[in-house]
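If I may wish for something, please sit down with the protein I am sending here and say whether tokens and residues agree:
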Amino acid sequence: QVRLVDSGGGLVQAGGSLRLSCAASGSIFRINDMGWYRQAPGKQRELVATITWRGTTNYSDSVKGRFTISRDNAKNAVYLQMNSLKPEDTAIYYCKAAVTTITTMRIGDYWGQGTQVTVSS
């Protein structure tokens, strides 16, 4: 089994910064793509940013230039540095990892439990 634990959310004023972290553990052979998604009340979950094993990144237009995704392959971790936060960034943020497990040697998607980010105006 694979477990993802995300953390780092909180309450911040508009213009402030937060750094989210997500660590994976368990029967991991390799972690392929990792990413962050978010879901605001009454809205569908949406992609925020992704990063490949080699470090190629992709961002949604709404966060480009403000958020930075990074990863530490040795620690099976992914991070999201969020700067210049806006009230519309308020949501539950989830990390996601595409993991090849030792037990099956097949890729499966795993999600963190979510961390709340609230940006006040």
Remarks:
- The chain has a mean pLDDT of 97.
